[in-house]
Fold these 2 entries.
Entry 1:
Amino acid sequence: MTEATPPAPEVTISPRKVGRVRLLWTLAYIIVPAIALAGIEAWMRGTVYVQTWDYNTLKQTRGQMHYDYLFAGSSRTQLGVDENAFAEEVARLGGPANQSAINLSAGYCRVMYHYFGLRTMLRDDPTCLRGTTVFIECPSGMGEYLLWTDPWTYTRAERVLFPGMIASDLPKLWLAHTPLEYKLDMTVRFLTYNYKSYAMRGILRAEFFRVGREAAARELVKLGADDTPPPLPADAPKFRTGASVDPKVAKNAPMYFKEFYEQEKKIIERHWRSWDISVHDDLVKLIHNAGGKVVFIDMPQPSIFDPMYKWEGRDEDRRLFNETVTKRWNSFVIHSAVKFPDEAYPDRFHLDGPSAEIYSRALAEDYVRKLNAATEAGSTNRHIAE
Amino acid sequence: MLFNSWIFFAFALVVLPLYHALPLRWQNRMLLVASYVFYGTWDYRFLFLLLLTTSIDYFVACGMGRTDDPKKRKLLLGVTLVSNLSVLGFFKYFNFFSEQLEALLHTLGFNPQFFHLNVVLPVGISFFTLQTIGYVIDVYWKKIPAEQNFLDFALFISYFPQLVAGPIEQAGHLLPQIKKARPRVTFPDVASAAWLILLGYFKKSVVADNIAAAIDPMLAGPTPGGLSCLIISYLFTIQLYCDFAGYCDIARGVSKLMGINLMVNFNLPMIARNPVEYWNRWHISLSLWFRHYVYIPLGGNRGGVVKTLRNLMITFVLSGLWHGPKWSWITWGAYHGAWLCAYRLMFPNQKKQHHLHWALDLLCRTAWFNVIALGLMIIRTDTPTAFWNFIVSIFTRMSWKIEAAEPTFLLMVLGGSLFAIELWVRNRDNPWEAKGWNWGLGVVTVTLVILSLWFLPAPVGKPFIYFQF
């Protein structure tokens, strides 16, 4: 006969002990990651440079807040206008000499960016725009039409706005006709803007992948991988910033444009007519009230943008824009006579360096001509009058 | 409402506390309203479609429950099949079949101009249609009684965590959980749910979206070099898995917080070593559905080899068609059907366990991973020409190029960390039960997952791939 197995002793754990274990468990799995995040936040505050935002770092980086010419546009203007060449050319053609110029245009930004930017500048120095001529980009003879009820940023470019946003902008944001997700996302980004580990996590991510990619590339080369750079002619085009054109970007440009067009379809495919309630209107008012002047510049652009600007009905939109510029905003549009072929846009979007200089000088010439013509005609145009 | 959106976060913040504050009956009603709100955020018009499908199936099933007359029951089954498949066919397949017919007539010398619909595909329609068809068939087979409470039945069809991308629940599993008082959600349940949600977001936002951001531009241009193509095919396999399994993990985690257990939909499919094992591990709820309601009714493996192979092929082609009204999906279904047929011919005794030497076992798993990766490229490349160029590149241009650096890095870091976690935790809902899991390692793992979720999610969160089905 086999011996009967004694029953296993009943193990009882006191509720107190269970509670203690759970508390420890929670502490371990929540507090440790929280401490790690807090540590990274502290490290980033000390080391990662604040996102460059030209508008509120002018004083620190350039030592002055006031400029005679200020260019406000997107990357199109950022790369397409050489502000110093422009100022030089204006002086050479008999316009005002020794004028300071700055190009505060930035990639992926809508007109809200400049509105918030100039507002920030004026908050720091209410006189900084006195006598300044602000050149606002208007490709194809029209500004990018945007209402306060539209999305304030391009998809993927939300971060560009936050340095200039203030709490009182939030109600306006929530009244916009944008999806709830967009409003929530923008609000969270605004509220967390000062937490670098969240607001600038994209920088860390990009750095992580860059380091990883480069390490993988080194290892592949060691294994005998062909590291010949993608075929680029020796005289590969360069932008005015000195950056070379990434052939991958140029190759994928139509795809990027298509993606962009799909995302912004609702805004692009409507008529652009109520300029009196547009963000441009507030921007112009802000500049005028601060003692500045406004000039619109018809930035050249390649044929890839034709679907946005060249279709039935756009001509009427353009006419209305020009009417608003002259009658409501007392300003004018400079339509430069210089035209560039698509080859002048090596990445399919932006003018290359030499073309940017040609355009900037041509712009100066047109600007001086407009000034002279207006003076001769005794224009009451506010821009000229001041 | 995407799981990876702020709206869902806000939605969950409202629904979960409210759920726990209510008694059972009201919990179900509130969940039903919440599920309809969840679905209505895409397009409120399709709520009527959901309600219509639910109502038809509810009344048909109740009718079946009241009669034993086989003819009447068959007729009622016919009504539900026709109505559900018509809705699915109208929204999902009308344009596809109309285009195919047009093309066929065109080749015969006619030039017809068929009507094409310009409608949006209701999100999740393929999932809830299969779920509701499965329910009615189960009632017809008398496996389950017809549900008499309309609200409970409506919740079974529209339960929000699994409404738009599965798992496709069987009535016998989900309905009883809806009807009876759910057990109190305990501390271990919350911990387990938190792990599933964390892991789900990691799979989706860190792994799948970052891979998509890297390989989409590469596939948009000319076909890359052979090594890049090979790595891209691996990465896409991991992307698709993480995209879908991530969704299911989040769904299961959220559901667990309400005391409802959804079925496991993935069980380490990437380590399968043959087609049979793979289909027992990948999209398990769909495999089960097709097995129960298509393959077995067709005759299954009864009736000889030829009939078995025929049934397999029909089942898998239909499964491909279910995924999408495209030739690439149908081809993918046929591709897997063919592999299963070949496997069945090679190993007719499916029940016998094959014990392999570890090296051979590893070789089988690696080879099968390559087979599934290649199959998925049929879908990703979408056209026969692009797929052919892709294959040609792998087999004829296998040169080492620097362009492979980013995919290689992603494969090693994202794929590697994913496989490490998966192989360690082995699909357990409670990772602390895994072999070798201790406080130290556990805390480090969870901290790393949280940090990667914080710092490494792709800049743009993409919609879940399976939403398009």
Entry 2:
Amino acid sequence: MADIDIKRMVADLPCPEFDEPAFAPTKPLHQARVAVVTSAALHHPEDNPFDAQDTSFRVLDPNRRDVQLGHWSPNFDRSGFAEDINVVWPIDRLTELAEQGVIGSVANVHLAFAGNQDETMTSIRLDSGPAAAQILKDDEVDVVLLTPV
Amino acid sequence: MLKALFAMLDAAEGPVLETYPEHIDAADTEPLVCSLPPRMDDSLHPAVDEAQALRNAYDRALEKRGNRIGAAREISADDVPAAVAAFVRITEGVDWKEAEIPGNPMRVAQDIRGYYQTAATELAEHTPAAWAGEDWFYEQTETGRLMLAARTALKAAGAPQPLWFYLSPGDRPA
């Protein structure tokens, strides 16, 4: 099922509304430290694999390229990722942008969750999400790119 | 794409929501051209024979790219032909509990597909278009067609819905 079909399917689904949506201006991009957070259930081979309804996250090392797509759902097209991990985790592109001075630096930590979550996302909102955010703050990350897969 | 996303940081107030016209459409994409091996052992079911014959391509793909697709998580590559044989038995009317599926059926099915699509990265003559890898597996390979047939058989036999539904993408008819 292509993304255009999925967009049609979910277009009318109700979404949570927040009274005070976050807006956090950051430093200029050429000074900013950038991380990727993906919902593609990526992990390194030695990490614990993701399980169904897994609300935890894995930390990705930007110096490594040996990552696996850990989703169990059959509804993913994995061929593009098999050819080039940057379609999900654009780590080489970020490195190039840092070398060009477009961004300040690439974070030392990148994070992966599994995207197949219950609709409340309670555990992530209250537990693993804040824990993940702390890891990013400890690495002085300014900007996070979310790649929803 | 990254530059478009970073441009959103220039907004003075927000949150900023942007919709872009680009999308990935599965229709009219280039099919995956991926040669399959000829029959090697006529005594085996064609799907089992095919799975065995793809092993060298699978191993070469792992060597080059690693296990990005995440195959061989429930069963090893060594177990794939036997797992395919279990789904052959299901299409022949054997009850799924007696078919000797070597693990969680959904996960075994995912590993079989991952084994094939990993091998395809080594055999294909070009980068596959969106969803072309899935179409190739379910429409061009003996095992892909077998998995769809097994799904249909399980549904017809009254197996629990989660057991048969997740054997293939949800938009494939059962």
